[in-house]
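Weekly modeling sync, notes
Attendees: AB, CL, MP (scribe)

Item 1: holo prediction request
CL wants a bound-state model with magnesium ion before deciding which constructs to order. AB pointed out that an apo prediction alone won't tell us much about the pocket. Agreed to run with the ligand included and paste results into these notes for async review.

Input as submitted:
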Amino acid sequence: METKVIKLDYASPDPKLLGEAGAVLRRGGLVAFPTETVYGLGGDALNPQASRKIYEAKGRPSDNPLIVHIARKRDVYEIARDISPQGEKLMEAFWPGPLTLIFQKKDRVPPETTGGLSTVAVRMPRDPIAAAFIQASGGFVAAPSANVSGRPSTTTADHVLEDLKGRIEMILDGGQAVIGLESTIVDVSVETPVILRPGVITREMLEAVVGEISVDPALIQPDSDKKPKAPGMKYRHYAPRAELTIVEGSPEAVVREINRLTEKWEAQGEKVGILAAYESADKYPRGLVKGVGSRRQEAEIATHLYQVLREFDETEVTRIYSESFADARIGAAIMNRLLKAAGHRVIQV
Ligand code: TXA
Ligand code: MG
């Protein structure tokens, strides 16, 4: 299959091209599209065949449910039922935007889309190209992140092409995804809302709207026997090809330890990558150093994280050492993704 790449203008995407993309979905095909978080691999959420194709294209286990993307708030009532007052308040406060909510599903949503669950994940993206594309496709677009399962999520059309060329009909190129990390997921199908995946909409922001929220214990204690409530969180995602280890401690001790390890492995003929904040990037005389953003600008680190992990994949490095980042606010999402990419390998110094 040939994968067509279509460039769209962010501010005013061409309706004719969007119509073409929408027609692909209406026929049961797949189109990758930009959102403000990461690129999505879209198919018609109400067509079980299309959901099967999504799993196949990604090489993803089919017990891992998909998020249904909508373009108008009122469309949520077509696919979800028993929406709680907290659910209503969160939609009001954060849609359109990088927040996915879990509700009880209506029968219209096929089990293929929800991995057999009785709940459905719904998100209304803020990105204007995403909104127009969803509308052109019939209003309900199932979309996981547009990467091959086990690789970092994609934040540019080039990354999508790298992973999915020949496996999908079309890619809509809307430039770089501004946020760079996947949406926050909150389960509002239960009495007290639960965060299943951290994102740039933080716990503090959610609590300011609905009061107390809990966090899926499997997120806090990754090695506990607790099964994560978002099935996708149990897989080792976002994994670079080289072995990634996070080094945690005071800034000086971290620099010293990474320099020591780099020297040690280079002496044995290995190539070492270093993932650092801009502030410390010039403190590493050896290794392939990549700056990911400034510690004073967490959002910038979020935007570049997956890109930098992908760049390492194109090099010869066999080991990557990463500095650790602050764990508050957006930092919680950054560290969640980084720890998963590292398979929870952490050295404390
Ligand atoms: O920002 C995003 O959310 C991106 C863009 C494309 O919208 N999408 C995304 O999808 O990250 P994906 O498939 O890579 O991650 C969806 C996560 C998975 O961990 C999945 O297990 C969880 O959402 N999920 C989906 N439906 C669920 C449900 N009914 N109950 C619990 N978790 C669910
Ligand atoms: Mg994903």
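Recorded for review: The pocket of threonylcarbamoyladenylate (ligand 1) is lined by residues 35, 37-38, 40, 64-67, 100, 102, 114, 117, 119-121, 123, 143-145, 182-183, 185, 196, 229-233 (CB under 6 Å).
Action items: CL to compare against the apo run; MP to circulate these notes.
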